[in-house]
Design brief:
Blueprint lengths: L10 E4 L9 H28 L7 H26 L8 E2 H34 L4 H4 L2 H27 L8 E2 L6 H5 L7 H34 L4 H29 L8 H23 L2 H19 L1
Parallel strand pairs: 1-3
Antiparallel strand pairs: 1-2
Helix pairs in contact: 1-2, 1-9, 1-10, 2-3, 2-9, 3-5, 3-7, 3-8, 7-8, 8-9
Length: 313
């Protein structure tokens, strides 16, 4: 752990999350089960959207299917390494592995922000401009939006990874976090990080603030349109189509803002907050979208019914 000014680090050690030693096995099994259920739940949503003809032709569910891929990716980047921390011994992560983890986390995280915004825009068009919806939200437009979100996310991730790892790292190599993220890694740099912290704050702040503002504006118009619906049943159905999206946006943006958009990003609560976008949200998304969305539940029933019919034949 000695600081060697002339030697570039080749690996980092992730300290993980603090826990009582007696809970080691419980936490190992807990996060392992969470990871398995996350992968299975999101894979089920993705397959349902792909297989069901009534879903994969609608932009709202195309976005949901792609969101499931991102949740599987985010969980796979973070949770296996987190689980390893509950096994005996020190398991360092290579320097290149740390770079890749940071890049893909911010790549998928920013892309997810863009997708939540696209999903809000889709709901705005469907509820506020239903007659123009088929013209404004065509398959081509939907594909371009999806591709644009992926490209913008990859650029954002590349900027953050490049800015973070262009600095020299000569020791110590202990990252006081459960994955390689910007605030924790920058504390180990052997150089002034003021500019990096400022650029990170502004860059992530612009992405989060602009996406959240567009979502908020969309829902202001959506609520106004829903309140103009005369029947209580019509208002209920309109609200139900937006409820799941509002829920996942809330549990995603609040922890992200707490971690990155504070002047002092070195709080013991950062690790607990980071568990939400990295572990809890990917696990909850399939549950939220299936329990609150009748069309997804019907599609799952149709898919299960078709499987049973094929097995009987």
């Amino acid at each position: 752990m000695e600081r060697m000014n002339s030697t570039q680090l080749t690996e980092f050690i992730l300290t993980g999350i603090p826990y009582p030693p007696k809970l080691r096995i419980f936490l190992f099994l807990f996060f392992l089960v969470i990871y398995i259920l996350t992968q299975m739940g999101n894979l089920l949503i993705f397959l349902t959207v792909c297989i069901d003809s009534q879903l994969h032709a609608r932009p709202m569910y195309i976005f949901l299917g792609v969101l499931s891929i991102m949740d599987m990716g985010t969980s796979s980047i973070i949770v296996p390494r987190l689980i390893m921390n509950f096994t005996p011994g020190i398991k360092p992560i290579p320097f290149g592995g740390c770079v890749a983890q940071l890049y893909f986390y911010h790549f998928l995280g920013s892309t997810q922000c863009f997708f939540y915004t696209l999903m809000a825009y889709d709901r705005y068009l469907a509820i506020c401009r239903p007659l123009h919806y088929p013209v404004l939200m065509t398959s081509k437009v939907c594909f371009l939006m999806v591709a644009g979100a992926w490209v913008a996310g990859s650029i954002h991730g590349a900027i953050q990874a490049t800015l973070t790892f262009c600095l020299p790292y000569c020791g110590p190599n202990q990252v006081d976090y459960f994955f390689c993220d910007i605030p924790a890694v920058l504390r180990l740099a052997c150089a002034d990080t003021t500019i990096n912290e400022l650029v990170t704050f502004v860059d992530i702040g612009v992405v989060v603030a602009s996406c959240f503002s567009l979502i908020l504006i969309s829902y202001v118009h959506i609520i106004q349109a829903i309140l103009r619906i005369r029947t209580a049943d019509g208002r209920r159905r309109a609200f139900s189509t937006c409820g799941a999206h509002v829920t996942v946006v809330t549990i995603y943006y609040v922890p992200a803002a707490f971690i990155y958009l504070r002047p002092e990003a070195n709080s013991p609560l950062d690790g607990a907050a980071a568990l939400f976008p990295t572990t809890i949200t990917p696990f909850l998304n399939p549950l939220i979208y299936t329990l609150r969305n009748k069309e997804v539940k019907l599609a799952l029933k149709r898919m299960i019914g078709d499987r049973r019919a094929m097995s009987k034949n």
